[in-house]
């Protein structure tokens, strides 16, 4: 699963990306389209449950969950019609699973805004309109071919035609597809279309150092607009976070304390992105390693086992599971088992966020 960082030019996308991925590369120049190809990077998802587990099961190493991020070059008004670098970048967005849209919530005369003024809600609308126009264009181009297939006995094509028309009507009404109610079959069909506005979105309000908590009027406007779209907002000062990311661990703590922060805002952002993607973590714990594994919300025990190795899913027998609360109460796996708190779950078990697991399987 991966998330694409999008936004208008000069909103701080690449600065944020570099900070998230702890990149020490030089920051991009102050002009549009400086990111010609999408950059990719991995970001760890901070989780204090890993620290708590290691109190009772000391490992040789600790491995957190990770997300793949794609830094996509700035979109401008008219991108769906080829303006700027146009459809090339829209196609990059089509390949990701969720959108992290950076919106500028700071004033700086040295950083030119493409629209000539700082208006984050207008920026949000510009991106949304371009994505909707691209979806309309994509559906209108695909519909004739599917309609021809639907004239025969192709039931799948008939379903897709109906779903396409439903999506088109919603988009023409200027509503993104993530707000369209669909049944399971329709959702599967829409996912195959690769539609941009069907992807979940998280708004990142890029603030200045005087508004780290995002209490200023610009961020409040973003929150109001995001609430209407059913989306979350995370305030981040990309400039400060980039500086923190460049420091050694000891110096980071001092700088965070000086800024009145208990952890980097990027940690909050990483967790929010994880949630936006519909992901959760389960853990494996032993002397060799304590590790967080990523699964989709709703994944079954065999599917979770398959994240470790496909053979685990194919030969799945059962899972032995306990909770962090059990570990904190009984201190060791041996005592958890003795107390009858170690659960044995089969193939139908749906994983819970925070499960600590052992999988048994046939080789």
Task: Provide the descriptors you would attach to this structure in a database record.
flat, 363 residues, alpha/beta, 6-stranded mixed β-sheet
Notes on the structure:
The longest helix is centred in the middle third of the chain and has 31 residues, at 120-150. The protein has 14 helices and 12 strands. Helix 4 packs antiparallel against helix 5 (155-172). The two termini are 28 Å apart. It is flat, with a radius of gyration of 23 Å. The chain has 363 residues and is an alpha/beta fold.
Task: Describe the secondary-structure layout.
Elements: E1 2-6, H1 13-20, E2 39-45, H2 48-56, E3 61-63, E4 65-71, H3 86-94, E5 98-105, H4 120-150, H5 155-172, H6 184-193, E6 201-207, H7 217-228, E7 232-236, H8 238-245, H9 249-259, H10 265-276, E8 279-285, E9 289-296, H11 301-308, H12 310-314, E10 316-322, H13 324-330, H14 333-338, E11 343-345, E12 356-361
Parallel strand pairs: 1-4, 1-5, 3-9, 5-6, 6-7
Antiparallel strand pairs: 2-4, 8-9, 10-11, 10-12
Helix pairs in contact: 1-8, 4-5
What is the average per-residue confidence, as pLDDT, rounded to a whole number?
87
Strand neighbour order, sheet with most strands: 2-4-1-5-6-7
Instruction: Classify the oligomer.
Output: single chain
Order of helices and strands: EHEHEEHEHHHEHEHHHEEHHEHHEE
Shape: flat
Uncertain spans, ≥5 residues at pLDDT below 50?
23-36
Distance between the terminal alpha carbons, to the nearest Å? 28 Å
């Amino acid at each position: 699963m991966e998330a694409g960082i999008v936004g208008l030019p000069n909103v701080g996308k690449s600065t944020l990306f570099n900070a998230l991925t702890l990149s020490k590369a030089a920051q991009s120049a102050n002009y549009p389209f400086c990111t010609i190809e999408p950059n990719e990077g991995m970001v760890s998802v901070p989780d204090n449950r890993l620290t708590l587990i290691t109190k009772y099961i000391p490992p040789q190493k600790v491995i957190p969950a990770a997300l793949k991020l794609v830094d996509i070059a700035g979109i401008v008004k008219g991108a769906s019609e080829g303006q700027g670098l146009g459809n090339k970048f829209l196609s990059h967005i089509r390949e990701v699973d969720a959108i992290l849209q950076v919106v500028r919530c700071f004033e700086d005369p040295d950083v030119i805004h493409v629209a000539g003024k700082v208006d984050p809600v207008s920026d949000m609308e510009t991106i949304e309109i371009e994505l909707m126009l691209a979806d309309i264009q994509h559906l209108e181009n695909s519909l004739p071919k599917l309609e021809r297939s639907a004239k025969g006995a192709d039931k799948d094509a008939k379903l897709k035609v109906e779903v396409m028309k439903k999506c088109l009507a919603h988009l023409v009404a200027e509503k993104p597809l993530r707000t369209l109610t669909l049944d399971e079959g329709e959702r599967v069909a829409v996912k195959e279309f690769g539609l941009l506005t069907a992807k979940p979105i998280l708004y990142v309000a890029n603030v200045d150092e005087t508004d780290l908590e995002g209490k200023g009027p610009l961020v409040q406007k973003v929150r109001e607009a995001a609430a209407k779209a059913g989306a979350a907002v995370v305030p981040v000062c990309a400039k400060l976070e980039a500086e923190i990311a460049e420091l050694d661990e000891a110096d980071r703590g001092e700088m965070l304390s000086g800024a009145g922060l208990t952890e980097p805002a990027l940690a909050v952002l990483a967790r929010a992105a994880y949630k936006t993607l519909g992901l959760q973590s389960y853990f494996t714990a032993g002397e060799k390693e304590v590790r967080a594994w990523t699964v989709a919300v709703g994944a079954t025990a065999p599917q979770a086992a398959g994240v470790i190795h496909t053979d685990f899913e194919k030969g799945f027998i059962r899972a032995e599971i306990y909770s962090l609360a059990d570990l904190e109460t009984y201190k060791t796996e041996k005592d958890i088992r003795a107390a009858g708190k170690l659960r044995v779950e089969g193939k139908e078990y749906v994983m819970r966020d925070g499960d600590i697991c052992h999988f048994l399987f046939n080789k």
